[in-house]
Design goal:
This protein is 72% helix and 0% strand. By secondary structure, the chain is mainly alpha-helical. The longest helix has 43 residues, at 618-660. InterPro entries: CstA, CstA_N.
């Protein structure tokens, strides 16, 4: 490095040390959010400049002259050579759904410090490594899915188990993501109008990009302008007939999201999926960058303490101690197994050059890290009483009284004013994390502009861009799920595995949407808010999927003769295994009914028996029976995930032992190398 570069990077490292010390060592005194922003940006810069360069050059050894699947197998439908920034936009939007927004907001009940440390360390040493390795493996294997790669590199049994487990886990993941959208858009005609408007906007962009006659910059400008207009136009429907038609409760919204996921999964990737994701990325990165500027301008104090008393597991938002539940609640902003499905699903079929793995795989992950940090700041800068009232289900009187008893005073009048300020009917019980982040963002933006009356506009802008991103995760995830289901069905009858067959694609999509749609509907009708009970299962399932992906990564590195670098996969794998296994065990067997599924089931069974004996209303008994069934389903699902992942890990460990201790040579299943065409780029 040149002396000037050495000085610059030395200053960046020093800034990181100072800001991290202030954040971590403050006890009782207020901490300014600027220090959190400074620390996060420094981690971002250092990780991308040094860690990603080492990972790509030394560990993966990318080959720029090797043809990628998008080049070698282009078909105009799934394999499409695409500009790297459009691929970055698609990949970032697909992986950065609600996870980096919802997870940090929910985990804020532990205080700002545990979540912040996990985001910064987990994203760089875990998530970015995980995403890059899986994307690299899939590109070298014709864009194959995670389950297919495990079958080829680890063994047929492990592959079959991985494929079944991956499909099952993805079902839960998409159901939870869809539930976040439902909670954000329920009874919100403004937000729903804006989201509906984005569909034709994205399709027009797709047609323009596909034609090749319209410059990508012009298409981008059109999309951004139309999106902003749709946000403003949402306010105009108030008082019109459209307001009544678009004021929907959870059930019809759930059916609508299922229909959208089905259509988006079978349409050509260039028509809706890629342009919508590309547009969404501009909106999300732009909004988060503006939020960072607002934080620096306002210098808000973090009202949530570094650690709250809820680290002991008594938190009102969700039950469970800071370990392991902070580390499964925050997934997508740190380490997320869902990313492995995108990195082995749509993205490897679009990327034109291997060298772009650094920008797309690593870069998108640490960009998402910054999104998670901003969400954490937005939640922790709020008054804790408002934060807890928004994220707890119940009547206004019950919730405000309960939050006040916990030591965070809040009144019904205060929450009514908040709802009026953001243009909503109520903000109590708006569980799911997205409304909390939207309130935090709206308050900061309106404060910067010295216009409190604009808070409603900013709130609905935040809801729009959150829901827009979640929907891009749902459509990309459903498309990946269709690929996985076709892999499974192809083993039963080969024609069903043909991804070029319209009939087979529709059949697989219908089956997959029906599966995640069932869990979505159960979450919608859950009287306790749905998201608070499903999110821990989502976290366990998501991180178990990352264990599978990291096991594959370690296996491939050893087969490639790079066993000395296998630790980059083993290190996050060991941590995630400890976290997920302990969390899964507690979710099943914990004695606290708020935490353990079986103890909750016993409590509900006793309540049903007592209610039947005392003549409780039939509707109440039916609701309790529904919740009882959910507890047993949750138990079976979580236990199945734990067993499946342990089987895959055991099979992977056997192959590691054979290669490292017994010195057996196991062939690497890469596609034959094809030379890329010369490019003037």
């Amino acid at each position: 490095m040149k002396p000037l570069a050495l000085v610059v990077w030395g200053v960046v490292a020093a800034l990181l040390g100072v800001s991290a010390a202030i954040i971590a060592l403050s006890r009782g005194e207020p901490v300014n959010a600027i220090w959190v922003v400074v620390a996060s940006v420094c981690v971002f810069a250092l990780a991308y400049r040094f860690h990603s360069a080492w990972l790509m050059a030394r560990v993966l050894t990318l080959d720029e002259t090797r043809a990628t699947p998008a080049v070698a197998f282009e078909d105009g439908k799934d394999f499409v050579k695409t500009h790297r920034w459009v691929v970055f936009g698609h990949h970032f939007a697909a992986i950065a759904g609600p996870g980096p927004l919802v997870g940090p907001v929910l985990a804020a009940q532990f205080g700002y410090l545990p979540g912040l440390l996990w985001i910064l360390v987990g994203a760089t040493l875990g998530g970015a490594v995980h995403d890059s390795i899986v994307l690299f493996c899939s590109i070298r294997r014709r864009g194959k899915s995670l389950g297919q790669m495990v079958r080829e590199e680890v063994g047929p049994f492990a592959g079959a188990v991985a494929l079944v487990g991956t499909v099952a886990i993805l079902v839960i993941i998409i159901a939870v993501l869809a539930l976040v959208v439902v909670r954000a858009l329920a009874e919100s005609p403004w937000g729903l109008f804006t989201i509906l408007a984005t569909v034709p906007i994205a399709m027009l962009m797709g047609v323009g990009l596909k034609s090749g006659k319209v410059h990508v910059g012009l298409v981008s400008a059109f999309g951004v302008v139309m999106l902003l207009l749709s946000v403003v136009a949402g306010k105009w429907i108030q008082g019109t007939a459209l307001e009544g038609w678009l004021t929907l409760e959870g059930r019809p919204l759930a059916w609508g999201i299922m229909g959208y996921g089905l259509l988006a999964s079978v349409l050509p990737v260039w028509l809706l999926l890629a342009p919508r994701d590309y547009l969404s990325t501009f909106m999300k990165i732009g909004a988060v960058a503006l939020l960072g500027v607002a934080i620096i301008f306002l210098a808000p104090t973090l009202h949530m303490p570094a650690l709250t008393r809820f680290v002991d597991g008594t938190g009102p938002v969700f039950a469970g101690k800071v370990f392991p539940f902070c580390f499964i609640t925050i997934a997508c902003a740190a380490v997320s197994g869902f990313h492995a499905l995108i990195s082995s699903g749509t993205t490897p079929k679009l990327l034109a050059k291997e060298k772009d793995i650094r920008v797309v795989g690593y870069g998108a992950m640490i960009t998402e890290m910054l999104v998670g940090v901003m969400a954490l700041i937005a939640a922790c800068a709020m008054q804790p009483g408002e934060y807890f009232a928004i994220n707890m289900a119940g009547t206004p009187a019950e919730v405000t009284a309960q939050v006040t008893e916990l030591g965070f005073p809040v009144s019904e009048a205060q929450m009514e004013k908040l709802a009026s300020d953001v243009g909503e009917k109520t903000m109590i019980g708006r569980t799911g994390g997205a409304p909390t982040f939207a309130v935090g963002m709206a308050r900061m933006f309106s404060s910067v502009l010295k216009n409190p009356t604009a808070m409603a506009l900013w709130y609905h802008f935040a809801i729009m861009f959150e829901a827009l991103f979640i929907l891009t995760t749902i459509d990309a995830g459903t498309r990946v799920g269709r690929f996985l289901v076709q892999d499974l069905l192809g083993g039963i009858w080969r024609p069903l595995g043909n991804t070029r067959s319209t009939a087979a694609s529709w059949a697989a999509s219908v089956l997959f949407v029906a599966a995640w749609g069932w869990f979505l509907y159960q979450g919608v009708v859950d009287p306790h808010g749905g998201i608070n009970s499903l999110w821990p299962i989502f976290g366990v399932a998501n991180q178990l999927l990352a264990v599978i992906a990291l096991s594959l990564g370690a296996t491939v590195l050893i087969k490639m003769g790079r066993a000395r670098y296998a630790w980059v996969a083993w290190l996050p794998l060991a941590w995630l295994l400890a976290v997920t296994m302990s969390a899964g065990w507690q979710k099943i067997f914990a004695a606290d009914p708020r935490l353990g599924f079986l103890s909750a089931a016993r409590s509900l069974a006793e309540r049903i028996d007592a209610g039947a004996a005392s003549g409780a209303p039939p509707g109440q008994l039916a609701q309790w029976r529904h919740l009882l069934l959910n507890q047993y389903v949750n138990t079976a699902v979580t236990a199945s995930f734990l067993i499946l992942v342990l089987l895959i890990l055991a099979a992977s460990a056997r192959s590691w032992w054979l290669m490292l201790a017994s010195r057996q040579s196991i062939p690497l299943r890469e596609e034959p190398r094809m030379q890329a065409a010369a490019s003037g780029e």
